[in-house]
């Protein structure tokens, strides 16, 4: 086994986008057209991921997160740079690479639509050639981490989005891969399903020492799962470190919450080094009656927002 | 890990398991299953009626009498069954490629074409198979062809040849979506051509005959391979070669399909 789970050096990915034309004639013309423009989705990203890490891979929409994951899984070839996943070059041997990874793209099920979940599991067991004993142990582990009985015999097409996502995550871990990629797995899920999924991921990671690359817009996921975060924006890496380090960078920041109306909380993020909290409260007090006040540490959510806005280097 | 551990028998086993599971789940939607099978039977009866009305009163076209025509009809129905039962997912390729859902087929350590095609089994085509075989048996009797193990073996090989050609045509048609946006019409047009499979190519004028032989090889779905059975004393070269050509053509269509996958930049997030 290779030393690092993933190693990327100066990876770039450009898409050539054809300026398309309408209709049958247009599409025939497009076949021979050289009318391209280039979109740089990923620019010069270097990244090393160690075994057993859970990495929060964050960034606004269109930042290049999914494109990075597609390169790591071997479905896209980088335009330049070098990449190894489990010591292999993923796009050179996509099949061998997929032997040892699991992938979930939120809201796109990869299971057999009409089959009960357990039948999908058995097919995956055969496809990945998982020994029966390991398969049974894994199902036992699943049972100990999450209540799978209600979904085990249900066809995927009859499942709710939450159950489907849960099933897809279980399926991604079934062959005990070294790395699992989760691209926005909690998108569109309710609070209780989110917390179920978080504890499942964290349980599987600690039991199996699986490396997890997680992209999400939900900072609850990050707080619950990730020690280290990598943030990219417009294809470039802008942050790569522990989440604690990030918070201490913003150590002098506080979130001031004031309740003005009956149920209406107003939130202001304040840097104590430059602004006095009392001043703000006094000023507000003169305008409106404040019913309640809370002062909190800055949340991960706000830290990330600050980074996107370019306040940290 | 060894390289060739996923051999042909591995794929056959996986395929059988998917098929059985899929059939089981289809049976559980019984009403759906019965209605769609019934619909297929009606379609076939209607198709047969049209054929009967058209040809019952023509004693012979280019040396083809009614029972020879019927044989060709049954042959084409049978040969067209695999493309409809087993390769139906090609119809979904285009929408999956554009929505980005196609990417899921690239995350497993198995052949992408196999994985994609094995996912859908369309049982409706089975009614057509029964109809086709019935027609074949009936016309076989009427023409007075002999029944020997060897000739049955030849018949099966010829029908499979016809199937390979139609499957390959549809593979080519479906895979155009990797290059051309809005390529849905390619598949629709190609699938329409299958209606010409049941006529002897000798009734077409020269240009059509050439097109259906060398460009869109519809004449290989039934006409050329069936001559092996119908004219055993005088088999044309193209008929003799048709099994080899079928395998080659299918292989090319598979390579074309896979080339599309390779060069396709996956969209969707
Ligand atoms: N197949 C593609 N063809 C052209 N442009 C693409 C393709 N895939 C992604 N892009 C572009 O690359 C950028 C990054 O996309 P993506 O990786 O999906 O972002 P994220 O997952 O962070 O939201 C976007 O601007 C997107 O439009
Ligand atoms: Mg994305």
Description:
The complex is a heterodimer of chains A (313) and B (269). Chain A is an alpha/beta fold and 313 residues long. Chain A is built from twelve helices and twelve strands. Helices cover 68% and strands 1% of the residues of chain B. Chain B has a two-stranded antiparallel ribbon. The mean pLDDT of chain B is 89. The chains are: A alpha/beta (313), B mainly alpha (269). The A-B interface holds A 15, 20, 24, 27-28, 30-31, 66, 70, 73-76, 94-96, 98-99, 101, 103, 105, 108-110, 112, 114-116, 119, 122-123, 126-129, 155, 183-184 and B 1, 5, 13-14, 17-18, 21-22, 25-26, 100-101, 103-104, 106-110, 119, 179-183, 185, 265-266, 269. Adenosine-5'-diphosphate sits between chains A (15, 17, 39, 41, 59, 61-67) and B (265-267, 269).
In short:
With 313 residues, chain A is of the alpha/beta class.
List keywords for this structure.
heterodimer; A: 313 residues; alpha/beta; Rossmann fold; 2 domains; six-stranded mixed sheet; globular; B: 269 residues; 68% helix; 1% strand; binds adenosine-5'-diphosphate
> Could you report the average pLDDT of chain A, rounded to the nearest whole number?
89
What value does the Rg of chain B take, in angstroms? 20 Å
Helix content of chain A: 25-40%
Helical residue percent of chain B?
A: 55-70%
CATH fold naming of the largest domain in chain A? Rossmann fold
Task: Give the strand line-up of the largest sheet of chain A.
Answer: 5-6-7-3-8-9
> What is the overall silhouette of chain A?
globular
What is the level-2 CATH architecture name of the largest domain in chain A? 3-Layer(aba) Sandwich
Element-level helix/strand string of chain B: HHEEHHHHHHHHHH
Tally of separate domains of chain B: 1
Q: In angstroms, what is the radius of gyration of chain A? A: 23 Å
How many β strands of chain A by DSSP?
Answer: 12
């Amino acid at each position: 086994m290779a030393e690092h789970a993933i190693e990327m050096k100066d990876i770039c990915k450009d898409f050539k986008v054809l300026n398309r034309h309408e209709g049958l004639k247009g599409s025939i013309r497009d076949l021979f057209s050289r009318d391209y423009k280039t979109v740089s989705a990923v620019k010069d990203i270097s990244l090393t991921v160690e075994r057993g890490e859970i990495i929060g891979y964050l960034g606004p929409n269109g930042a290049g997160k999914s494109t990075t994951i597609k390169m790591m899984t071997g479905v896209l070839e980088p335009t330049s740079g070098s990449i190894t996943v489990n010591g292999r070059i993923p796009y050179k041997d996509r099949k061998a690479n997929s032997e040892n990874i699991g992938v979930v793209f939120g809201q796109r099920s990869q299971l057999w639509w009409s089959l009960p979940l357990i039948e999908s599991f058995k097919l995956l067991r055969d496809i990945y050639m998982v020994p029966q004993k390991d398969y049974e142990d894994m199902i036992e582990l699943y049972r100990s981490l999450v209540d799978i009985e209600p979904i085990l015999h249900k066809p995927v097409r009859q499942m709710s989005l939450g159950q489907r996502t849960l099933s897809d995550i279980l399926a991604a871990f079934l062959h005990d891969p070294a790395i699992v990629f989760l691209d926005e797995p909690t998108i569109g899920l309710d609070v209780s399903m989110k917390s179920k999924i978080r504890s499942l991921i964290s349980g599987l990671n600690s039991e199996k020492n699986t490396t997890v690359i997680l992209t999400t817009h939900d900072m609850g996921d990050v707080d619950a799962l990730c020690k280290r975060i990598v943030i990219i924006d417009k294809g470039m890496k802008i942050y790569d470190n522990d989440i604690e380090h990030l918070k201490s960078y913003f150590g002098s920041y506080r979130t001031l919450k004031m309740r003005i109306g009956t149920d209406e909380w107003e939130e202001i993020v304040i840097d104590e080094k430059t602004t006095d909290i009392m001043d703000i409260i006094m000023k507000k007090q003169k305008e409106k009656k404040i019913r309640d006040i809370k002062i909190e540490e800055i949340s991960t959510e706000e830290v990330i927002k600050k980074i996107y806005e370019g306040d940290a280097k | 890990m060894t390289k060739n551990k996923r051999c042909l028998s591995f794929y056959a086993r996986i395929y059988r398991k998917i098929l059985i599971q899929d059939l089981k789940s289809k049976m559980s939607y019984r009403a759906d299953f019965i209605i769609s099978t019934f619909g297929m039977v009606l379609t076939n009866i209607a198709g047969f009626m049209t054929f009967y009305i058209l040809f019952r009163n023509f004693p012979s076209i280019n040396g083809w009498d009614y029972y020879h025509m019927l044989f060709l009809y049954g042959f084409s129905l049978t040969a067209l069954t695999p493309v409809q039962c087993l390769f139906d997912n090609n119809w979904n390729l285009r929408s999956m490629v554009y929505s980005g859902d196609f990417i899921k087929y690239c995350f497993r350590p198995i052949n992408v074409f196999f994985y994609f095609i094995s996912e859908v089994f369309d049982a409706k085509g089975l009614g057509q198979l029964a109809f086709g075989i019935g027609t074949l048996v009936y016309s076989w009797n009427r023409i007075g062809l002999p029944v020997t193990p060897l000739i049955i073996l030849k018949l099966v090989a010829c029908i499979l040849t016809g199937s390979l050609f139609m499957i390959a045509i549809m593979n080519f048609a479906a895979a155009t979506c990797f290059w051309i946006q809005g390529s849905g019409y390619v598949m629709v047009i190609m699938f329409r051509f299958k209606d010409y499979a049941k006529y002897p190519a000798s009734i077409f004028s020269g240009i059509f005959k050439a097109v259906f032989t060398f460009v869109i090889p519809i004449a290989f779905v039934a006409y050329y391979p069936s001559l092996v059975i119908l004219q055993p004393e005088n088999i044309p070269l193209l008929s003799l070669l048709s099994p080899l050509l079928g395998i080659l053509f299918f292989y090319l269509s598979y390579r074309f399909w896979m080339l599309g996958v390779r060069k396709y930049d996956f969209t969707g997030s």
